[in-house]
Amino acid sequence: MEHAFRSKHGIGMDEYQNDPNKLIEVEQRRDREYEQEQRIVSRFRSTESHQ
Fold it and tell me: Which residues 6+ apart lie within 8 Å of 1 measured at CB?
């Protein structure tokens, strides 16, 4: 899990848990990615319903 987290976020779990600024950066990035994914899903579903 540590390796996957480091690969995805560029920092280790220890740094994430102990540095409030890094935690905020990671969580904000996760929020942006989630919103982007939701827009993609919404467009996909919209396209499906028109077929």
Answer: 13
Q: Say how far apart CA 49 and CA 51 lie, in whole Å.
A: 6
How many Å apart are CA 15 and CA 13, to the nearest integer?
A: 5
| pLDDT 10s digits, 23-47 | 999 999 999 999 999 999 999 998 8
Look up residue 50 and give its DSSP letter. Answer: T
d(CA 35, CA 28): 11
What's the pTM?
A: 0.77
**In the chain, where are the structural domains located?**
2-49
Spatial contact of 16 and 9, defined as CB atoms under 8 Å apart: yes
Q: Read off the tokens for 41.
A: 């899903």
